[in-house]
From TrEMBL:
FMN binds at residues 81-83, 111, 160, 257, 279, 312-316, 335-336. This is Alpha-hydroxy-acid oxidizing enzyme. PROSITE patterns: FMN_HYDROXY_ACID_DH_1, FMN_HYDROXY_ACID_DH_2. Pfam families: FMN_dh (PF01070). It comes from Oceanospirillum linum. One of its GO terms (molecular function) is L-lactate dehydrogenase (NAD+) activity. Keywords: Flavoprotein, FMN, Oxidoreductase. Its cofactor is FMN. Belongs to the FMN-dependent alpha-hydroxy acid dehydrogenase family. It comes from the Bacteria. Residues 2-385 form the FMN hydroxy acid dehydrogenase domain. GO terms for biological process: aerobic respiration. The active site is at residue 281. GO terms for cellular component: plasma membrane.
Length: 385
């Protein structure tokens, strides 16, 4: 697609996405909670750090390969869980991202709230995949989901812990978006402005709940109803003991996503988790938290050298990935950077997003004097004065 090739960075993909999907869907992706302070800080937080290049290193060959949660990865980043991908790409939904990630050689995370089923996502490509689990109040449903994800060959479990209730996303309240999108008079007018999207949406499985065919429609526009619906769905008395039990049952790489303090990272280590994902859900849940990048150093100091640390939030440039690694992270995960590509051009759009980040990251490594991931370290970074 020519318009994808004209996108030369992740922000360009967002501008293209805005022309491809209806405005309520675009706002659902780009929006954050309350005043969106955390949403913005997740990106600006990277500006608090400066890259210190080391001179005259042999960078004639660059090796970006690494391992993420037990899986080989061609780059130190992978695709984070994003639910309801059928709204961004009605034709292929999650399958687009899973296929692109597989061809690119990085893991893909399937959300509990995916529009295609775990089995469909697993079968769509050879690549390694992680299963992101929301703990549901319905124990039977929750246990079925875990068994299914194991049977479908997911390589790691990612337990998201920051979504006990839904965040207050005012853009969704204003747009009146519901999940799955409902054709009201207002929304039909907005959807008709994107006829190609609408046609695909009507023709495809659209935003059906892949893993829970019977899930009720959730109105994001009515924040009270939304919070109530989410509260009914999620286990609200989730504790570290549940996390410990889930880790034991999973018996493989196990990450806790939504850790935002050194103390909780230590707890995660104590219950046996192999990784922590520093994340505030892309600023979509609790507004006012720090940016994940600001926590990396203190979390690394607290958990020691062996625990895997993944930075999730605000990654828009290859230099962001480099900074996270220099501060002590093992890898980064991509939310909007990937979803923008998905909205802008499905599988090809995701490939474009991954390719842009790869090229930026590799250029950054060369200019900073690093030829392998192991070489990136504290001497390459300092806090801006
Ligand atoms: C549209 C959208 C849907 C998301 N759905 C989920 C989800 O189902 N499960 C989850 O753990 N996180 C979900 N997230 C959060 C992402 O996994 C990730 O933490 C966040 O997007 C990272 O911030 P970034 O978008 O700035 O990269 C979602 C994020 C977006 C933008």
């Amino acid at each position: 697609m020519r318009d994808l090739q004209s996108c030369i960075n992740i922000d360009d993909l967002a501008r293209l996405a805005a022309k491809k999907v209806p405005t309520p869907v675009y706002d659902y992706v780009e929006g954050g909670a309350d005043d969106e302070v955390t949403l913005h800080r997740n990106c600006t937080g990277f500006q608090r750090y400066q890259i210190i290049p080391r001179a005259l290193q042999d960078v004639s060959r660059i090796d970006t390969r690494t391992r993420i949660m037990g899986c080989d990865a061609s780059q130190p980043f992978y695709i984070s869980a994003t639910g309801f991908s059928g709204m961004m790409c009605p034709k292929d939904a999650e399958l687009a991202g899973a296929r692109a990630a597989s061809r690119f050689g990085v893991p893909y995370t399937a959300s509990t709230f995916s529009n295609r089923s775990l089995e469909q996502i697993s079968a769509s490509s050879q690549g390694d995949k992680f299963f992101q689990v929301y703990v549901l109040d319905d124990e039977q449903l929750a246990s079925d989901l875990n068994l299914r994800s194991q049977a479908a060959g997911f390589k790691a479990m990612v337990l998201t812990i920051d979504t006990i209730v839904g965040g207050n996303r005012e853009r969704d309240a204003r747009s009146g978006l519901s999940i799955p999108p409902t054709l009201t008079l207002k929304s039909t007018l907005q959807f008709m402005m994107r006829p190609k999207w609408l046609l695909q949406y009507l023709k495809s499985e659209g935003a059906n709940m892949g893993n829970f065919p019977k899930m009720p429609k959730v109105s994001l526009g009515d924040s009270h109803a939304f919070v109530e619906a989410m509260s009914k769905l999620f286990k609200k008395d989730l504790t570290w003991e549940d996390a410990r039990r889930m880790n034991e049952q999973w018996n493989g790489p196990f990450a806790i996503k939504g850790i935002m303090s050194a103390a909780d990272a230590v707890k995660a280590k104590e219950i046996g988790a192999s990784a922590v994902i520093l994340s505030n859900h892309g600023g979509r849940q609790l507004d006012g938290t720090p940016a994940p990048i600001e926590l990396v150093q203190e979390v690394r100091e607290a958990v020691g050298p062996d625990m895997e640390i993944i930075v999730d939030g605000g990654i828009r440039r290859g230099t962001d990935v480099f900074k996270a690694l220099a501060l002590g992270a093992n890898a980064c995960s991509l939310g909007r950077a990937y979803v923008r590509g998905l909205s802008a051009g499905g599988e090809e759009g995701v490939t474009r997003a991954l390719t842009l980040l790869k090229s930026e990251f590799e250029r950054c490594m060369i200019l900073a004097g690093c030829s392998s991931i192991e070489q990136i370290g504290p001497e390459h970074i300092r806090k801006a004065l």
